[in-house]
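TL;DR need structure tokens for one chain.
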Amino acid sequence: MAGKNKLSTTLNYIYLTLLAIVSVFPLLWIIVSSVKSSGEMANNPLSFFPEKITFDYYFRVLNDLSFTTNIKNSLLVSFSATIITIVVSALGAYGIVRFFPKAGKKMTKILITTYMFPPILLAVPYSIIIVSVGLVNTWTGLVITYLSFSIPYAIWMLIGFFQTVPLEIEEAAKVDGAGIMRTFLQVVLPIVAPGVVATAIYTFINTWNEFLFALLLINSSEKMPISVALYSLTGSEVLDWGEMMAASVIVILPSIIFFMIIQNKIAGGLSDGAGK
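>> reply
TL;DR here they are.
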């Protein structure tokens, strides 16, 4: 039995390793292709290892194509949407759990139904609303659009975390003279911090990678997020695959690195909210 278990474990590890290689290979291909020379990309595009490593494509993308401006735009929009989402969702989820527990269950079901509709189905109504209020081609309109999707889901996620906080702890804080907001900020939030971090990271990654509404609502190159700027490269008369690879790395690599650094907090936060 011990031998069979060892063989089964070994086969499982081999299978998972192969799956990991298949999943990571496209990303590795993009990264390797982005550091090849222009001549090598044209003469032998299928070679995996570069003959000479160069970062010319990155300099051209960041300087000549002004991708640094697009990165700043995406950071501004993503951080704004994330901060507003966390503030509103944390207060909303705490209020539902503590003050409207029965109505909160029905409310969360209504909120989560917003994710039943594909974004393309809501593209026309959202565009009409944003144009009618004069917020087209503005970061404000784009952030408001993102909030309409991120806040309902964030509230739904955070409700599970706030339900893990024992009511006795809050009652003890009130006995010591703490008000509702002080109890919320100094007692409850530190307890659910892993869940808040997980929700914030999920919101940031979604807004950073969002493409459809950014394409529809932003038509100025100076305000264009990085995802739309990457798409705009395909509209050039001659597509430079080296620049496309370098730009793709710039778009996706920060999210991957950021996710790898804090993945333990995400996993811990989600498991705490689900288990308790």
